[in-house]
Amino acid sequence: MTKIELFEELAQIDENGCSRWVSVDEFVGRYQGLQLLNGAGWSRDDGAFGKKYLIERDRSRTPGNKVDAIRTVGFNNGEYSRHIRPDIKKEICSRRCVVLGTSNPECDHKNGRKNEDRVMKNEDQKLSDFQPLSKPANDAKRQYCKECKRSGVRFDAKKLGYPMSYYKGGAIYNENDGCDGCYWYDPMEFKRHLEFRPDK
Hints:
globular
């Protein structure tokens, strides 16, 4: 069996191309060949696996940029891309992190769920769909987005000491508001709403 076939067996990918989260700790025994010894290895976006499936990776469990778990979220039919258009990425990465103010940020999708059709098509992407986040800030956001997807409860900015939880919508994630209104969706927009709070 190829490595892709082994992963398909282990992950139990369904007819829609979606799988459960598969921890790298499961890459043992029969599946030992799936271990990611050097980078993404067989699971690279630009390899055979990435050409077949849309892939999500979790890096929240261990320090650094090491992949902890992988899942597929559909078939790659050529219309969707996890990649950010080069001109947008260059501009965003020339700015400072909107949370920590540090230089050399990562280019972050504001929508942590990456479930907007337009934003996932390179030709339709806009600069305003992205923001500069330092690696520590982006790692934190990734962890909170993962928890939101798991529980359906959005991040409460009061945990960071802010006087309000959201600038739009409530605690429960819904498709109408999406991520908009959450601190991590757009920290700069969140802070602008603090300036105009009527109870100040």
